[in-house]
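Not sure how to ask, but would you mind making up any protein sequence you like and the tokens describing how it folds?
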Amino acid sequence: MGEKNRTRVVEFIFLGFSGIPNSHIYLFLPFLTIYLVTVLGNLMIFTLIQLDPSLRTPMYYFLSHLSSLDICLSSVTVPKILVNFLRQKQTITYNQCLAQVFFLLTFSGTEGAMLAVMAYDRYAAICKPLHYSRLMSPTVCTILALATWIWGALDSALHTALSTTLSFCGVNQIPHILCDVPPLLKIACNSAHFNDSVIHISSFLVGGGPFFFIILSYVFILSSILKIRSANTKRKAFSTCASHLTVVIIYFGNGMLNYNRPSAGYSLEIDTLVSTMFCIIPPMVNPLIYSLRNKDVREAFWKVLESQTKAKHHNTMN
């Protein structure tokens, strides 16, 4: 009976901003702007790292992965949201919904782990400078990057598999504008207590694990920085950590709001907006933070721009 009821739903209807008259008119442009800024900003960071030899270090290697993750995370949700804003009925098929859940959780889980790896890189650079080349060798960097992707994919596979056990008994209206595990649990007609427990346990391990590792890393980093006598060196050490810390606070802050806030007490529109921010805000602001606060990235941008201008001028002259 449960299987029969579950397969009866072949399409979901999103209700996220249904309480706002003509919401698609007012929201399409802001979401499109956010998406374009996200893709172009992260693509710029990724391209600069590939083109400028001075940025081919472990820190920027992981930053290039972070930029790729941000593009992927945003692209999993925003294009579908934009398409639905242009349609009278905002829908997604059952299979597309599960695919969106899988990739959303894969990229978000991988990003949290990647931020932890970046914290370890800063720890090795500041606390173990004499052993840095060994601790962060190209082989180690490749293994760490691969491990973060596997970490996110395994967690996502677990949640997606559990989502396939949910029955919806013909109910196909999701109180959201994208597919995620919490909105699906809200409309499931069979017991979702186990799934809900797994979310909180996973949130503590997959989200909390990297976060506590980052905190521990920065305890050692701060202790080492305070022992530095040179004010200039101390300032430079703080500067290399500032961008990463800002990204960590924004990412994990939004993640906690999305997966650990009370299930009641918000209007549908506010609840949708808060959880959607997790998918669109960190990917958009990360390249802005790293480009505005990072001197190396700014210098690489002007260097690449200057070289491209000279090459264009040379080709025109010829």
In short: The first strand starts at residue 11 and ends at 14.
